Amino acid sequence: MNAFRGLLWKDFHTSKVWFIGWLAIIIVVYSLGLGAGGYFDEKGIPVGFAIMLGVFHFAFLPVIVYSMLRLEGKTQLWLHTPLSGFTLLSSKLLVALVYLIISLLLVDLLGFISFSRLPEIGYWPVKEGVYFNIGVLLLGLNMSGWLIFFWTVYHSMGKFPAIKNIRWLILAGLWILYTSVTTFVTSLKPVENFVNNTWVVDLPASFFFTIGSGGEDSGFNIDIIPLPLLPFIWEGVMWLILFIISCRLLDRRIEV
């Protein structure tokens, strides 16, 4: 446990400058939105900037995970530590998740401030904000899982001179094969019907916000969107499999 705490502290310490810089970028971009809203006398412009900053977070988790993996590759820690691959990768994922949650909460706060400045806001999209944050978290975890898998497979293949120079082609082939097979299987009518009619939840009315020359407009759609859960379960199982494979490969002390 003490070793894991030490690893967490090291990962926080080596990545904190990057994260502080990211938070500074958020503040600067949002300040530009406030300035533009004041200049054009459109109080909805900062809301648009807050939404834009939220969308950027879809790529946040894989980017920061990759930056930490790249830094570790320079130090060759994998070759000299007695810690398992599971411990090494879990620490980086946990640090990245903490950063993501803090950053999302900051954007949520900026969104709250933006909405509070609107003259006649009749609906606060609290539920939609929670759903959005969960979506960012799940998609970020999914992308990070594939990133870690490709990173470990790529460096594992470096031990074999015959394929070392074509590793990217092999990885691209693996991704194309996986997406092609899953697309074909899910396009089969029995599979499609099973997925779309098993474990389906109805999403509540969704909030919309528009900004135009006539000012801002907001409200919520009355349509209910059915959301099948099986694709999410499948992606969760795949994520677990990819993470286990990545840990096993890392335990072989790959050289990066």
Features:
256 residues, two-stranded antiparallel sheet, 8% strand, single chain, mainly alpha, globular, 73% helix
Write a structural description.
- With 256 residues, the protein is mainly α.
- It has one domain.
- 73% of the residues lie in helices and 8% in strands.
- The protein contains 9 helices and 4 strands; from the N terminus they run H-H-H-H-H-H-H-H-E-E-E-E-H.
- A two-stranded antiparallel ribbon has the order 1-4. The chain has a two-stranded antiparallel ribbon with strand order 2-3.
- A hairpin with a 2-residue loop joins strand 2 and strand 3.
- Helix 3 packs parallel to helix 6, helix 5 runs antiparallel to helix 6 and helix 6 packs parallel to helix 9.
- The model has no long low-confidence stretch (mean pLDDT 86).
List the helices and strands and how they pair.
Elements: H1 2-40, H2 45-56, H3 60-75, H4 77-80, H5 85-116, H6 126-156, H7 167-187, H8 189-197, E1 200-203, E2 207-212, E3 215-220, E4 225-228, H9 230-251
Antiparallel strand pairs: 1-4, 2-3
Helix pairs in contact: 1-2, 1-5, 2-5, 3-5, 3-6, 5-6, 6-9
Offer a concise description of the structure.
By secondary structure, the chain is mainly alpha-helical. 73% of the residues lie in helices and 8% in strands. The chain has a two-stranded antiparallel ribbon. The chain has a two-stranded antiparallel ribbon with strand order 2-3.
Q: Structural class of the helix and strand makeup?
A: mainly alpha
Largest sheet: 2 strands, antiparallel
β-strand percent reads 5-15%
Distance between the termini: 26 Å
Report the order of strands and helices: HHHHHHHHEEEEH
